[in-house]
Amino acid sequence: MQLLAKHAKDAIQFSYAPYSTFKVSAAVRGDNNQIYTGVNVENASYSLTQCAERTAICTAIASGAKSITEIVVYTPTEHPTAPCGACRQVILEFGPAVKVRSVCDSDLQLNWTLLDLLPQSFKPEQLNQP
Question: Which tens digits make up the pLDDT trace of 2-45?
Fold first, then answer.
């Protein structure tokens, strides 16, 4: 996860957060062992803002990965920040067993399983129930 944290920190420079000024970056490892990064990209129409975690996951999938095996979220803050609810659901779709790590500019970090972050989640297999 150290390498993912480095990639996430390196990507923060590309964050586009002119409205909130809250920059976020993420790095994921695809099932193909490649690392993909993403940043938050805000929009004047706030609901169209794209989170860093979803950007990284979509980049991985668009590049040929079928799932993710690790994810690190980085914020240039004193305390780490957890993924939002929408990102938790997308992480579940492509990495239901991944461990999620949030890092920041201090030595603090937070680690979760997806079950910690999204208990009683809506899973893809529920769509196929009679």
Answer: 999 999 999 999 999 999 999 999 999 999 999 999 999 999 99
Q: What is the pTM of this model?
A: 0.93
> Which of these is catalytic: 42, 53, 70, 78?
53
Query: Is 42 among the catalytic positions?
Result: no
Using alpha carbons, select from 76, 78, 77, 86 the residue that is nearest to residue 117.
86
What is the residue whose two structure tokens read 């989170």?
51
Bridge partners for 70 per DSSP: 29
Q: Between 3.30.70.60, 3.40.140.10, 3.30.230.70, 3.40.50.300, what CATH number should domain 2-128 receive?
A: 3.40.140.10
